[in-house]
Amino acid sequence: MEFFEVLSKRRSIRRFQDRPVPGELVEKLLEAAFLSPSSFNKRPWHFIVVDDREKLRALSKAKPGASGLATAPLAIVVTADGSRSDVWIEDASIAAEHIHLASFALGLGSFWVQIRNRVHSGDKTAEDYVRELLNIPENYRVLCIIGVGYPAEEKPPHGEEVFEWEKASRNGFGRPFKT
Q1: 162 touches 169 (CB < 8 A)
Q2: What pTM value is reported for the model?
């Protein structure tokens, strides 16, 4: 699929067919993540692939808004070693976006569940909940969880309305990019 077509047609999908994602496609998703750039090529990330139904249900309780993980056949938990890089958030975010784009290009759907800086319940963070559930070491931070599967819903491509040219400037903030 042509790159700009992927960008315009990729939408967040939260309803999936009851169909597993084949191992070779999961490997392709991870390859896409491993190909992402990182600051000083430190590559601080670690990806946890979850396809166990009980663990997926448990992940869906990490925070409000994560319920789509209960029916997703696959989740990729995006973590990074915060002790290896002070820009682990940026590095892990780029890798997560690569997973999203690769998912769509492979005929899959995906959605992002923010974990960093979110609350599970009471005084427990979503990050601590996921860390405990998946035995993630303390030096690894949990950025997000990406639910992946074959879409059970269709969404229209993005239209021209997403091009907010007033939010782009040339040679200084507030100077119109387009005249």
Answers
A1: no
A2: 0.95
User: DSSP readout, 98-140?
Assistant: HHHHHHHHTT-EEEEEE-TT-EEETTEEHHHHHHHHHT--TTE
What one-letter code names the amino acid at 143? L
Instruction: Please state, in angstroms and as integers, the Cα–Cα distance from residue 75 to each residue in 37, 66, 168, following that order.
Output: 22, 11, 34
DSSP 156: P
- The pLDDT assigned to 1 comes to 62
> Cα–Cα distance between 88 and 85 in angstroms, integer?
5
Q: Is the dihedral of CA 119, 52, 32, 105 positive or negative?
A: negative
Residues of the chain below pLDDT 50: none
Model pLDDT, residue 106: 97
- Predicted confidence at residue 179, as pLDDT, reads 79
Tens-place pLDDT, residues 59-79: 999 999 999 999 999 999 999
Question: Are 74 and 17 spatial neighbours (Cβ–Cβ below 8 Å)?
Answer: no
How many angstroms separate the Cα of 166 from the Cα of each of 5, 158, 162? 23, 18, 11
Distance between CA atoms of 47 and 65, rounded to whole angstroms? Answer: 21
Do residues 146 and 78 touch, judged by C-beta distance below 8 A? yes
